[in-house]
Amino acid sequence: MSIEKDVKNYNSENKNTKVSDIESRPEPLKVLMCSPTYFDIIDVKNTHMLGQNGNLKKDLARQQWQSLHDIYLQLKADAVVEDVMVIDGAAGCEDMVFCANQTFPWFDKRVVISKMRHPSRQKEVPFFEAYFSALGYQAIHLQEAKMFEGMGDTIPHPHKKLLYGGYGHRSDPKAYDEISKTLQVPIIRLELPNPNFYHLDTCFVPLSESEVMLCREAFTAEGLEIIEKLFSKVFYIPKSEAINTFCLNAHVIHNDKNGKKAAILQKGSVHALEALKQCGYTIYETETSEFMKSGGSVFCMKMMIY
Ligand code: ARG
Q: Which end of the chain is less enclosed by CB atoms within 10 A, N or C?
């Protein structure tokens, strides 16, 4: 049995399957951001938000968002990405700027629509559904799963039809049963036991077909074992660096059409920076302090679309 057939578990029967045997997948090369007009911190949805209520510097947040947008425009000029688009943030949707969470787009122009855990974030989703529909995407609505937070928890293996699905805080493992059946793609489920790493995109950054950087403490022993089998090189990033700099919320881009590579991440990391250098990335360090107060950084602030 191959890993592509047994979409549910990576088990003793399929564990010798190599990533190189899995079909390839084009990378999404268009960037979608959401304007920060209504970004705010008004409650505690994750541990990073504790004590941050009323602490947000809104003007600074706008400047930081603009700097990130400018980096993406530069990457467009450099042909690393193909386009940079912006969806308007909506009044009353204080977290909509984190636009990695409301959907999971697939290369055949289908898009899985999220079921956000928090009621205030559920209001964001219809704006994205309408946006994707206008682009000609067909929406997939989950039936059984109660929670699914899109690209925040679902990270593709670079260039491959293979997904990693984080669960435990914001997504329900049942979501991955439905998604793997509908999209016909194997999904490696990864339990996230540590509340600091409440989305997979806070602790796991695939760098190439064979390299990944992650924080060991974010995973279970079983999860780590699977990851270590699928990637021949794992860069272990210290927990304190991952929490304090959100470096594992880096956005790494591998343009599979022209081979260009770039990585954007919060300033101040050491080990993650070194791993990115070793893997040949052109690195852009930027400041996202105001978004980190809400539990997110670069990866959360964009959606990559086809
Ligand atoms: N305050 C937001 C929340 O708790 C932050 C979302 C960050 N997004 C991410 N992809 N990790 O939902």
A: N
Average pLDDT over residues 86-115: 98
Task: Give the ligand 1 atom nearest the CA of 49.
Answer: 1
Q: Is the dihedral of CA 246, 94, 167, 25 positive or negative?
A: negative
Mutate to test the pocket of ligand 1, among 39, 46, 117, 251 (most ligand atoms within 8 A of CB): 46
Q: Each residue of 31-63: b (16+ CB within 10 Å) or e?
A: bbbbbbebbbbeeebbebbeebeeebeeeebee
Q: With a 6 A CB cut-off, is 296 part of the ligand 1 pocket?
A: yes
DSSP state of 137: P
pLDDT for residue 18: 85
Residue 162: per-residue pLDDT:
97
Please indicate, yes or no, whether the overall pTM of this predicted structure exceeds 0.85: yes
Domains, the chain, in order of start with CATH, read 24-305 (3.75.10.10)
